[in-house]
Design brief:
The structure holds 3 protein chains of 3 kinds.
Chain A: E1 4-6, H1 12-36, H2 41-50, H3 56-81, H4 89-106, H5 115-141, H6 145-165, H7 201-217, H8 219-229, H9 231-237, H10 241-268, H11 279-289, H12 294-318, H13 324-344, E2 345-347
Antiparallel strand pairs in A: 1-2
Chain B: H1 2-31, H2 39-83, H3 88-107, E1 121-122, H4 132-136, E2 138-139, H5 141-159, H6 161-171, H7 173-178, H8 183-209, H9 221-231, H10 236-255, H11 265-269, H12 271-283, H13 287-293
Antiparallel strand pairs in B: 1-2
Helix pairs in contact in B: 1-5, 1-8, 1-9, 1-10, 2-3, 2-8, 2-9, 5-6, 9-10, 9-12, 10-12
Chain C: H1 14-18, H2 23-26, E1 36-45, E2 48-58, E3 63-67, H3 74-81, E4 89-94, E5 97-99, H4 104-110, E6 112-115, H5 127-133, H6 141-154, H7 170-182, E7 188-192, H8 200-215, E8 219-224, H9 227-233, E9 236-241, E10 244-249, H10 256-264, E11 282-291, E12 301-309, E13 313-317, H11 324-332, E14 342-344, E15 347-348, H12 354-359, E16 362-365, H13 380-388, E17 395-396, E18 399-400, H14 402-415, H15 432-444, E19 450-454, H16 462-477, E20 481-485, H17 489-495, E21 498-503, E22 506-507, E23 511-512, H18 518-526
Parallel strand pairs in C: 3-8, 3-9, 6-7, 7-8, 13-20, 13-21, 16-19, 19-20
Antiparallel strand pairs in C: 1-2, 1-4, 4-5, 9-10, 11-12, 11-14, 14-15, 17-18, 21-22, 21-23
Helix pairs in contact in C: 5-6, 5-7, 13-14, 13-15, 14-15, 15-16
The chains are: A mainly alpha, B mainly alpha, C alpha/beta.
Chain lengths: 358, 305, 533
């Protein structure tokens, strides 16, 4: 049942080819699925991948969705290199959104230039703190961060639910669990008249080269990579394991928190239960499909944003449930991990059972 | 007080049952060295499959098809991690995401349907014992099935050759391979057992506990089951204890306001998740004990030669 | 599933059979066929031919040595006999019949038992559970425990069936492996480098057991690279080099020199140990290290003190698992303790972590090369950074210079004769000996005051081993203090000035090498656990 053996050196070709291969395989399976549902696959692909990009609004929405995905994934990728599996970015995003919204709600009616930056900082602090809790639990008590980050996501969800239904509920609104609409000073300005894409994308645009520099050249990133591949080697070299944990979780938490602040102060404009359409989870896949590489993540983030848009379009024009984009995300990750195996392994050669002397 | 307590305890048994099924399955998989973070996804797939089957064939059919769906769902995970040696946490996560999507997709056809509830099965004589009777012996047969599953898993692990081989593979796949065992095959079997049990746990939720199909209805129970296995330090007896503790927590949370606890319901609902974290912290206090029981190869791919 | 297929030419194409002549047929009639005959076994791996046309035969009751240095192909050959690996070509004859050994369990059914060099045991299981893993038939641990006790006493291998394996000493673990084989009534017992973990006294007891087995008709295949052991024990020896058989002989009629020539084509290389002319100030001072192991399978250290001076090589003898791992990590800084417990050049460093101790002049080569001394998937250039990043040329303002790292790695490869495809090759693509040369070279290039090396030549071929030993000696004579932890007594006697013994977490006082011998050191190595029963 073992199909593979280790390659002496990792394959460069597979390292580049794995993500496109995974995308291709996902498309093939998606085509089969569409055909089974009685939707012509080509038409479905058109709805999914072409239609959303036919209008300026489509491109605006693409940027709006890709921006948080890319930002969160950059943070997560740092930890994944070190095998610190923060899978609770969704919770950190919500924590960031809550803190940023707190600033907006308590400064409502004021008009000052510092409000928006303060919200971004509050978002980073909130997300960072929400990431610091599992870091503390891991370094102090060796509690697995996979479980704690995820549990804290549920906690953040309920905290949000309580806030928007009791203390922060819009007193002037209907009985809906949501906060007041933020004032203009607490909102990112639109980049173009009439489109939703706003100035918060600059945060991502600036963050990407910084992450790229950090990952490709910094000593800290080297330590993360060593810790991820060989814990004993990191200990041997004297790299601090707990610093790795703190760095991974706090940075990824802060990045997710900023993304949460940008959601609240951007397209949503208030604190609501449906603040994030699962960006925190989708970013995990973005990080992996992007090869944990800062530039790969940009491409993967754009692709994932397109899947989101396509899912929405398919819901409207083809009556497919929105859950279908989760299905594709899961499949994409499966195929990517499978293709990835061939970076370090290769198929076992058939045993030359009959002797090689003929 | 007792009047309050008996229904709370009795419903605790029901609430703990899915955790027992899923936890025992994950425990067996982890004992063989495979950590599967896809329990949540497998439970959801089992829940929707079980619900669909139960519409025609009743609860028994629902549980069976839930388990079958769990096995089918775990196969891609098993193939990737065991035959291709992929990263186990990441692959498990993919399974969970896939399961959320697939179950929601299939589940759209069942959203407004409902099933008749399953009547409790009183065990003659035992059901009449005061307090214990209503708590333990006036349950649905699925609760009794979970006890049977516990006894079987505990017995196989501790007393049989299969259990010995499973434990050995989890500890040192290299040694097991060297003396001639098919490590990958054994891990496939253990992982599939985990899938079947998670599927059954999901089916129990949708066919007995709720009994309805609701999107994402497992609400993190799959993850709690994974945490319970750590809490149990990979021993079935402690897993049962943990499952009932958590079952009690979810039920208490529902009764809390009746018992005069002045906390908003949303914060009470977060208690089981906070408790999971607390439990993970508490268990780590005895690191030595944890290490002694930890399957040494847990999460490490095994590629022969 | 039948894995054994007697009679039929399973592997053998017709053209091959015609020139094949099994040894059994060339023997005079009525002589029983050999217990085991290997005929023209060939096994190729990508890039290497591990076994090239290997033939050998073992008679009933014969103790047959397979002699060769690391990498000669002995282990592959044994795995083929034991069914763990399948040959690409050639035949296996078992008691005169051709067989296909498809798996270890098929080998066991034939009556082939194997004692592995790296014990294939399960730490958290009991002795009897470990043994049950390899036995078929009814699963009854209580009855098996009685048999274990009987067999172990009959062959002078005392064992408590209910003990957990992790609580056993290395010698006791080997007994578990041997008893596990004996319970299957083997006709052939394979032992792979069985004495590397035994004291000289325990080696003699093992030889007694093996001779007893041979006298009962059991054939023994004895794999080793230790010449004097083979001369003391074996009736015949097949010598291998580079995957081929280079000779077959009666070792009792040979000298170590003639055997060595068959094994490596020349005399065994010897190191030069000139006297040290510099000032012998203390560089490493260990002061009463006491440590309760946090690892439940670990060993606690009891008041360990030692001084190593500049210019000398001090050896710590002893069998791994007696506190070696714990002591090394306390010295390297992978675990920390009292500041005064470890001092380097007079500065207390016991509380510092590994990186800070390197700043004080420590260099360390661990026993595990892949995964600890080097990151398997990273290139040699990246691996160079692992301990060399403190050089200002490699790191500035938190940023690394990978170009410089490549230059340094290339220099290391050249200076220390590392055979590889340049600084970009992954660490895991190197052979054990070459990776060890790279790691030792990397550490020496940090200009240390103190060099600690664990198992310097473990699994390394003779040429590389000699190179490494001479390198360490030269390093010491250049004024560095060198501490070597090794299981190989011969190696320690070759390069050390003083030798101490670590047994059961206690360190004996170091003795100058010319005032002691292997026998004395061996007695100290036994410690309290392994006194003769």
């Amino acid at each position: 049942m073992q199909l593979i053996e280790a390659r002496p050196n990792p394959s460069r070709v597979m390292r580049w080819a794995a993500p496109p291969l995974a995308i291709l395989l996902t498309l093939v399976v998606a085509a089969i699925l569409f055909a089974m549902l009685g939707k012509p696959p080509l038409q479905a692909f058109h709805v999914f991948f072409i239609e959303p990009l036919e209008t300026a609004n489509g491109w605006s929405e693409l940027a709006l969705k890709a921006s948080p995905l890319i930002l969160i994934a950059q943070g997560l990728a740092l930890g994944f290199r070190a095998r610190i599996y923060n899978i609770g970015a969704e919770g950190q995003l919500l924590a960031g959104a809550i803190c940023a919204s707190g600033v907006a709600i308590y400064t409502d009616g004021m008009d000052a230039a510092w409000i928006l930056p303060a919200m971004v900082v509050a978002g980073a602090v909130g997300g960072g703190l929400w990431g610091a809790i599992p870091a503390w639990l891991r370094t102090r008590y060796q509690a697995q961060e996979t479980l704690t980050t995820l549990m804290l996501t549920y906690v953040a969800t309920y905290l949000l639910s309580w806030l928007v239904s009791s203390p922060w509920r819009d007193p002037g609104g209907t009985n809906f669990p949501q906060s007041i609409l933020f004032s203009e000073a607490a909102m990112f300005a639109p980049l173009f008249e009439g489109l939703r894409v706003n100035t918060s994308v600059w945060i991502t645009v600036i963050a990407v080269p910084l992450f790229w520099l950090f990952v490709s050249r910094s000593f800290a990133a080297y330590q993360l990579a060593v810790g991820g591949e060989a814990v004993a080697a990191a200990r041997y070299a004297g790299f601090s394991a707990s610093r790795t944990v703190w760095l991974s979780l706090v940075v990824s938490g802060a990045a997710a928190g900023i993304a949460g602040a940008a959601e609240a102060a951007g397209p949503v404009g208030q604190l609501t239960l449906s603040l994030s359409p699962g960006y925190g989870y989708a970013a995990i896949i973005v990080a992996w499909v992007g090869r944990l590489h800062p530039l790969g993540i940009v491409l993967a983030g754009l692709l994932m944003a397109l899947i989101y848009l396509g899912g929405e379009a398919a819901q409207v024009s083809m009556q497919l449930p929105a859950a279908i984009s989760w299905l594709f995300q899961g499949m994409l990750l499966f195929f990517l991990l499978g293709a990835d195996a061939f970076v370090d392994y290769r198929l076992k050669r058939r045993r030359q059972a009959a002797g090689g002397k003929e | 007080m007792l009047d309050h307590l008996i229904p709370i305890l009795a419903t605790t048994m029901a609430a703990a049952t899915p955790l027992i099924f899923a936890g025992l399955g994950e425990l067996v998989a982890e004992r063989s060295g495979v950590i599967n973070l896809g329990v949540e996804g497998m439970m959801l797939i089992g829940a929707v499959a079980g619900f669909a089957a139960a519409l025609h064939w009743g609860v028994a059919g629902g549980l069976f098809f839930g388990a079958l769906a769990g096995v089918l769902a775990v196969l891609p995970f098993a193939f990737l991690t065991l035959s291709l040696g992929t990263n186990q946490p990441a692959t498990g996560l993919a399974l969970t995401i896939f399961g959320i999507g697939l179950s929601a997709f299939v589940g759209q056809f069942f959203v407004s349907q409902s099933l008749p509830g399953l009547r409790p099965l009183d065990i003659p004589l035992l059901a009449q014992i005061p307090v214990l009777g209503p708590v333990l012996f006036q349950q649905t047969w699925v609760v009794y099935l979970s006890w049977l599953a516990f006894v079987l898993v505990a017995w196989v692990l501790a007393r049989t050759r299969w259990g010995l081989i499973l434990r050995a593979v989890g500890e040192s796949p290299e040694a097991a391979h060297a003396i001639g065992y098919n490590v990958t095959g054994i891990r496939y079997a253990a992982t599939c057992f985990g899938g079947a049990m998670a599927g059954m746990a999901g089916a129990y939720l949708s066919t007995v506990y709720t009994p309805l199909w609701v999107q994402n209805m497992t609400a993190g129970r799959g993850w709690i089951a994974v945490a319970l296995v750590v809490f149990a330090t990979w021993r079935p007896g402690r897993l049962m204890l943990g499952a009932y503790l958590f079952g009690g927590m979810t039920i208490l949370q529902l009764h809390a306001q009746g018992l005069g606890v002045e906390l908003p319901s949303q914060l009470l609902a977060a208690i089981p998740y906070v408790a999971t974290i607390v439990v993970l912290v508490l268990i780590s206090r005895d690191r030595r004990h944890l290490l002694l029981n930890l399957p040494a190869s847990l999460g490490k791919p095994f590629i022969s030669h | 599933m039948t894995l054994i297929k007697p009679g039929v030419g399973w592997y053998t194409p017709a053209s091959f059979v015609s020139r094949f002549e099994p040894p059994a047929m060339s023997a005079p009639p009525r002589v029983p066929p050999p217990r085991l005959a290997l005929c023209h076994i060939t096994k190729r791996y990508p890039g290497v031919v591990a076994n090239d046309d290997v033939s050998l035969s073992v008679q009933p009751g014969e103790i047959h040595a397979v002699l060769g240095e690391n990498g000669a192909g002995k282990s592959t050959l044994m795995k083929i006999i034991y069914g763990a690996v399948q040959a690409d070509a050639g035949q296996i004859m078992w008691n005169g019949r051709e067989v296909r050994v498809g798996s270890p369990s098929a080998a066991r059914q034939l009556g082939i038992g194997m004692v592995f060099q790296h014990f294939q045991l399960f730490e958290t299981l009991t002795v009897v559970e470990n043994i049950a893993m390899a036995l078929e038939g009814r699963f009854d641990l209580a009855a098996l425990a009685v048999r274990v006790k009987d067999v172990s006493e009959k062959y002078g291998l005392p064992l408590d069936p209910q003990r957990l394996v992790h609580s056993l000493s290395v010698g006791e673990r080997q007994r578990v492996e041997i008893v596990r084989c004996l319970l299957q009534n083997p006709q052939l017992l394979i032992l792979d480098e069985p004495t590397s973990v035994l004291t000289p006294q325990a080696v003699r007891r093992l030889f007694d057991t093996l001779r007893q087995l041979a006298s009962e008709g059991v054939s023994i295949l004895y794999i080793s690279h230790k010449l004097h052991e083979i001369q003391a024990l074996c009736h015949r020896a097949t010598v291998m080099q580079g995957g081929r058989v280079t000779g077959e002989t009666d070792p009792r009629n040979e000298t170590p020199a003639t055997l060595a020539r068959m094994m490596i084509g020349r005399e065994l290389p010897v190191c030069h140990a000139p006297a040290y002319a510099g000032e012998a100030r203390a560089v490493l001072q260990i002061d009463r290290i006491r440590r309760i192991s946090a690892d439940p399978f670990g060993v606690s250290l009891h008041d360990i003190s030692l001084t190593v001076n500049a210019g000398e090589v001090v050896g710590i003898a002893g069998i791994s698992g007696n506190g070696q791992a714990e002591l090394l990590s306390a010295l390297s800084g992978e675990t920390q303790g009292r500041p005064e417990s470890v001092s380097i050049a007079g500065v207390p460093v016991g509380h510092l972590h590994a990186g800070q101790r390197r700043d004080m002049g420590l260099a360390f080569v661990p026993e595990e090369r892949l995964g600890r001394g080097a990151v398997p998937g990273m290139s040699l250039a990246e691996n160079f950074i692992l301990t060399a990043h403190r050089q200002p040329a490699l790191r500035r303002h938190g940023l690394l210079s990978f170009g410089r790292a490549r230059e340094f790695a290339a220099r290391c490869i050249e200076r220390f004769d590392v055979r590889c495809n340049g600084p970009q090759s992954a660490a895991r693509s190197l052979s054990g000996g070459n990776l060890q040369k790279f790691i030792v070279g990397r550490e020496i290039m940090q200009a240390p005051k103190l060099m600690i090396v664990a198992q310097p030549t473990w699994g390394v071929d003779v040429g590389a081993a000699a190179f490494l030993r001479q390198t360490l000696l030269d390093l010491a004579r250049s004024g560095v203090a060198v501490l070597v932890v090794s299981e190989e007594l011969e190696e320690l006697f070759e390069i050390c000035d003083r030798i101490a013994v670590l047994a059961g977490g206690r360190l004996s006082p170091p003795v100058p090498k010319d005032q002691t011998d292997a026998e004395q050191i061996g007695l100290l190595m036994s410690g309290p656990q392994e006194q003769p029963a």
